[in-house]
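Example 4.3 (complexes with small molecules)
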Amino acid sequence: MSAALEVPADRPFRHVGQPRSRVDGRLKVTGGARYAAEFDAPNLLHGVAVPASIARGRIRRIDTEAAVAVPGVVHIYTHGNRPPIPASDQDYQDAVAPPGKPFRPLFNDQILFSGQPVALVVAETLDAATYAASLVRVDAEAEPHETNLERNRFAAYVPPEKRSGIAPPPETRGFPDAAFNVAPVQIRNEYHVESEHHNPMEPHASTAIWEGDGRLTVYDKIQGVMNSHAYITGIFGLDADQVHVLSPFVGGAFGSGLRPQYQLFLAVMATLDLKRSVRVVLSREQMFTIGYRPETINSIALGANADGTLRALKHSAIARTSTFEDYQEVVVNWSNLLYRCENVGLDYKLVKLDTDTPCDMRAPGAPLGVFAIETAMDELAYAVKRDPLELRTQNFADTDEIEGKPFSTRSLREACRQGAEKFGWSGRPFEPRSMREGKELIGWGMATGIWEAMMTPHTARACLTADGKLEVGTATADIGTGTYTMLTQVAADALGLPMEAVTARLGDSRLPKAPVEGGSWTTASAGTAVHLACRKVADTLLGHARRMPGSPFANTSLDHVTFADGRIVLRADPSKAMTLTEVMQAAGVPQVEAEETAEPDPAMKQQFSSYTHSAVFAEVRVDEQLGVVRLTRIVSAVAAGRIVNPKTARSQIIGGVVFGVGMALHEESMLDHRLGRFMNHNLAEYHVPSAADIPDIDVLFVDEVDERLNPLGVKGLGEIGIVGTAAAIGNAIFHATGKRLRHLPMTLERVRG
Ligand code: MOS
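Answer. The structure with dioxothiomolybdenum(VI) ion bound is encoded below.
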């Protein structure tokens, strides 16, 4: 990007950096925002999937006789009568698929996991389809299955093929075993985190609308329309312009909407075959049969000097995956990205089990590994009798030892300092069990968090019309994060317009290319793309202004002017100004349009590592007799580069912290290993935190602008909020009770047990 397209240092932002309400807020609270299952079509049919009830085996026969007799049933698809579909794995590989053989719905008689769809009932009404689906009888031959990670850990293997975008553990540095063995202080334990399901409020849904002539409009619940678009066109052999995928609003996803889910395949298959529009929605129970955060067993060994300085750091993890894909995430590397050590051994292995492939879930991998290392560091602090925050500060890595690079910015120490001050950490008694009120023991704990600050290639278009209205668009999503609002702020500032003059468009496969909204990269990437496209429009406008007879802008470049209040203003003499509308009218152009792509600067990436950081402080009250843990206070101090919108950013961190509270205290997808099935598949038995579980969450943002990353100085923060939260709560429980819990979630029986 040329210097002129960057943010001029002396031009203050008007909207970027300000707490703005969501531009789509009104639509959301009035029901005007429509989600995938809410779009209608004439003669719409309803599809309901029939799940397999065994975890592994072969279908002998599917009896649909009673089901087809239900009035209103139009067709029942099984592997035996489905339309032809491709066989090659390549055709089913979506943009974020892990290595392996992607699941192919209704492909053959094989059952790979309990809940796998084995038939689709299509009917005139949802009721008819639901009832008929309950009448479909699946006769299957069960084979022995394995779903127990603990029992199968002997079969752990290093994934032979790396998942794109996921850094494998680095080579061992130094002599971690020898250094551990001679270390005067040794901490060695296992930290176990159970599986969790995403449970967004909006379940997975696809409405496929038959437009005639083999053309489709598809409303899909997805975190990136391009992924669904490529998936459908690839599998069904359609031309790009035959399929239009839209996803204007997403009712939460947290990673479950990164990959196209099976309802999309089923809805499109039936629509193309029947030449009628079809909608398929997953029930809450079915939502518990698709990808989840994988149960992971961490082992940590820390060797330290008597003063707590780390001499050896070993972190291994074993995680579950399916029998058909090698799902991978970054679990163990965080330990060395947080802490400096000369002797480091990290490894990460998988176990193939007969459940569906796990799926990215908010900060995939990070809260698992960080729970382990941040609990272990707390244990080390108590072993050497040092304040847990001080012990961490003493060991923080100030460079990325894995890649051997400096950090582009690293305000971890500052996050710790500001969070500690806000929380009142300095008043904390060291000894556990030293604070009590009535029946309750009170504890204070802390942990840090880390997540990668990523950018991915995004293209955006900006179009300014002579009425002074600006439209910007890119095919990203707004998964509830506030993307519409953020893009509006960035665009308004780039051209000096009020936010009301700007319309942001996204969630449409015909917009300029963007990947899924994920990895906390959207503000840095889509925001930068929109900024660059708008600055290019500004450049064109200035060109028009320069060429006008007697122009005050003759011989100027973007560096000499500002765009403010709908005008181009000469910096040297602010009385010289022209409105954008005047310029366009004088030039005789009805609109000015530009398209730009933002991508990470390869030279920067080669030189620097970029992460976001946090420090989380928690206060709990524990009733020892009952095992009840009440969270009473939490402070999350976050360093994530420039904060484009402190209001929506705060909401993101609050949401992430609530996720962390769920992980710490409540959420656990429980398998019945005899059946090989997640059994608590509803929101009564799978407990997500409710309002009563959540105290005031104090969010603070550390001043940080990372201009090495992008012209906005943004790092991104959709995920960092969850990362350190569970460890901070566990450490607070230890401080309250003196009892160290190493198994999440820390439910009543684990607290009492
Ligand atoms: Mo996120 S787990 O990349 O939606």
